Amino acid sequence: MTFLKTLASAALVLGSGAVHAQDSALVLGKSTFSARCAICHGDDGKGGGEIAGLFSVAPADLTGLSKRAGGAFPFSETYRNIAEGMDKAGHGDSQMPIWGEYFIADSLVDRGVTPDDAAHITQGRILAVVYYLQSIQE
Questions:
Q1: How far apart are CA 137 and CA 124, in angstroms?
Q2: What span, in angstroms and rounded, lies between the C-alpha atoms of 102 and 88?
Q3: Is 121 exposed, middle or buried (0-12, 13-18, 19+ CB in 10 A)?
Q4: What is the pLDDT of residues 29-82, one digit of tens each?
Q5: How far apart (Å, rounded) are the C-alpha atoms in residues 74 and 34?
Q6: What's the confidence (pLDDT) of residue 90?
């Protein structure tokens, strides 16, 4: 219940902003994707990142999320997969990184913020990546 409330609140806040705020979210999302996700999923999000060949299960083509979900972008599922990881192993017995935990630790160490602030920063970073992924759907 808390996850859904947080997601709904954050989406409402970001969604109600001006076009500039949406552009900023896309810029942050693309930057975060390039820094953290592209090595596996590729710069274009199609799954052909530099180390994609090392996995027994290839990284997903993230430009087809909407298509695989029947046409609607799976916003909540995408957010949850980034924040909490996935059930499917990416290589051997390892899983896709749980970026939520990484972003919280990164915020606490690099910015010296409180745990509550780190949680909010993390939610914003994940939402930005989700908005970016939504923008690259084919």
A1: 20
A2: 19
A3: middle
A4: 999 999 999 999 999 999 999 999 888 888 999 999 999 999 999 999 999 999
A5: 21
A6: 47
The one-letter amino acid code at 71 reads: G
- Which residues, at least 6 apart from 37, have a Cβ–Cβ distance to it below 8 Å? 45, 49, 62, 129
Please enumerate, as own/partner, the contacts of 1-4 that have beta carbons within 8 Å and a separation of 24 or more. Answer: 3/80, 4/76
Which residue intervals of 1-138 are DSSP H helices? 2-15, 19-36, 38-41, 65-68, 75-84, 99-111, 115-135
Instruction: Give all domains of the chain, ordered by start, each with its CATH number.
Output: 2-135 (1.10.760)
Largest CA distance in the chain: 44
